[in-house]
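Support request from a user on the community tier.

User writes: "When I paste my structure tokens into the form, the page sometimes reloads and wipes my input. The last time it worked, I copied everything first. Here is what I submitted, just in case something in the input itself triggers the reload:"
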């Protein structure tokens, strides 16, 4: 292992072994002038001094400036400096500049283990790679601020091990006859649809079993509006939407994202009562995502209503799913997400592969929950409109240039959306101009999977990734966007630097990464 890699491991160990760290945000300016927000340890910095400076003289000088010596690091001549009470790290970098013998000074950056979950069926979830979830999870897993996904559907199997710990509050049943909601405890699923939806959005993640949900931290609320799989009514849906709106910003629920994977294929009209209920919920701050429909024609109702985010479906190669409904509502305010072969939870503690915009929508809802949770740490008044705009404006543009009737603003890119939510900008984001492999260095023993992200200009169909040694020897051809660190023969690839080539019908791009055994 080279020195840089050894130093990264050392710093990671220091950060993770110190117990609960006090963290503050710090603005960092790169050599190119790009500004980014990074997490640093509050109240301390790292500094290197010339060998001529004695420890006693340094301590005296620090005390005169209100600081303290935190002790020597393992690296020669580097020390930890404690700041005067209340001083921010950015100010301390200037405050300590005049220290005798100072050669370098920097924040004590916060590191964390790569967030590749240990769910055994994760390799069956191609959608995670397509959404750039692995890279996105490095920014946020949904724990920063509370967000609840209200699933207005057929109910949820509350006994499923991936969902039982995610349920919050009291599940409700809204009878299609329009009567007031009643408690639905224990929560049940009348035909399995709602359980599949809930798992795609927020299944228990990194728990050593089953699948990974998009939002690790979001809670789930079951609002059942079906008494069978046959159908439901305006009245039931309106009552459920209204109930969800009453919970928005309740401390027990936090922000509310409503998922409606339902629709009317026969009559695409958004009638006044439904529109009024949706508009009222949006005024209360709720974000509502609705499945566009599965009849390959006009967008269904209520996805056709104003103030919702309609969600279309893509397949494993970023093509429009053959069944996905389409129309101007998508171009105006919609997005897309994988909706073919979505591997998710099923009733009776099972798992299943599901097709439909019904299952693209909860992937988008889970992404929205992550974005909202992350954004609130930067901007406490980040609204549902801001979340919707973040998803739309960072999506990978597919099909015709710009928003279109098929893909909307494009297929969601969780990495870009979270980067925008956390830093408030995409300036300086390498993934905008060149492909990246994440994490790098890649440690197969702990990281399990390497994930690739690349510019939207190469996001066409026929995607292939080829991995090469620095000498140009082909190591592995990939069909997806992850690699387990094994070569074509199934043997572990050796420690070293590797090149990768991303190719699709839309173009090609190159990048490199390090692998450490």
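"...and here is what came back when it finally went through:"
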């Amino acid at each position: 292992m080279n020195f840089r890699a050894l130093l990264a491991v050392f710093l990671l160990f220091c950060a993770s072994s110190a117990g609960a760290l006090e963290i503050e945000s710090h603005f960092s300016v790169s050599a190119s002038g790009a500004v980014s927000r990074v997490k640093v340890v509050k109240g301390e910095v790292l500094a290197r001094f010339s060998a001529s400076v004695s420890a006693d003289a340094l301590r005296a000088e620090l005390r005169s400036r209100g600081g303290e010596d935190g002790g020597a690091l393992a690296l020669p001549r580097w020390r930890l400096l404690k700041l005067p009470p209340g001083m921010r790290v950015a100010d301390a970098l200037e405050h300590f500049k005049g220290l005798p013998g100072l050669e370098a000074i920097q924040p004590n950056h916060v590191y964390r283990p790569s967030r590749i979950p240990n769910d055994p069926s994760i390799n069956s979830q191609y959608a995670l790679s397509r959404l750039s979830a692995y890279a996105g999870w490095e920014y946020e897993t949904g724990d920063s601020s509370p967000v609840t996904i209200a699933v207005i559907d057929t109910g949820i199997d509350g006994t499923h091990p991936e969902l039982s710990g995610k349920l919050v509050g009291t599940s409700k049943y809204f009878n299609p006859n329009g009567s007031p909601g009643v408690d639905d405890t224990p929560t049940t699923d009348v035909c399995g649809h709602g359980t599949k939806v809930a798992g795609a959005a927020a299944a228990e993640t990194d728990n050593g079993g089953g699948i990974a949900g998009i939002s690790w931290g979001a809670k789930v609320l079951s609002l059942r509006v079906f008494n069978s799989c046959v159908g439901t009514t305006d009245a039931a849906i309106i009552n459920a939407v209204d109930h969800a709106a009453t919970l928005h910003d309740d401390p027990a629920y936090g922000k509310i994202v409503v998922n409606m994977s339902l629709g009317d294929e026969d009559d695409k009209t958004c009638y006044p009562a439904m529109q009024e209920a949706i508009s009222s919920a949006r005024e209360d701050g709720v974000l509502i995502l609705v499945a566009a429909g599965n009849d390959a024609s006009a967008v269904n109702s209520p996805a056709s209503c104003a103030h919702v985010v309609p969600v279309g479906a893509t397949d494993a190669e970023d093509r429009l799913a053959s069944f996905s409904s389409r129309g101007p509502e998508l171009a105006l305010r919609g997005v897309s997400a994988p909706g073919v072969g979505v591997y998710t939870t099923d009733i009776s503690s099972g798992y299943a592969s599901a097709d439909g915009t019904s299952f693209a929508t909860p992937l988008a809802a889970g992404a929205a929950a992550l974005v909202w949770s992350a954004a609130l740490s930067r901007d406490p008044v980040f609204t549902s409109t801001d979340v919707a705009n973040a998803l739309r404006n960072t999506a990978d543009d597919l099909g015709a240039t710009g928003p279109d009737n098929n893909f909307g603003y494009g297929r969601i890119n969780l990495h870009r959306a979270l980067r925008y939510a956390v830093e408030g900008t995409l300036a300086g984001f390498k993934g905008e101009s060149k492909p990246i492999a994440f994490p790098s260095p890649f440690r197969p023993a702990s990281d399990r999977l390497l994930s690739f992200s690349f510019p939207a200009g190469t996001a066409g169909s026929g995607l292939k990734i080829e991995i090469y040694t620095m000498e140009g020897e082909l190591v592995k051809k990939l069909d997806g966007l992850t690699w387990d660190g094994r070569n074509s023969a199934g043997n572990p690839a050796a420690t070293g630097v590797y090149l990768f080539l991303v190719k699709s019908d839309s173009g090609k791009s190159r990048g490199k990464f390090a692998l450490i055994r």
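Agent notes: The reload is a front-end session timeout and is unrelated to the input. Confidence is low (pLDDT under 50) at residues 1-20. The chain has 13 helices and 22 strands. Escalated to web team.
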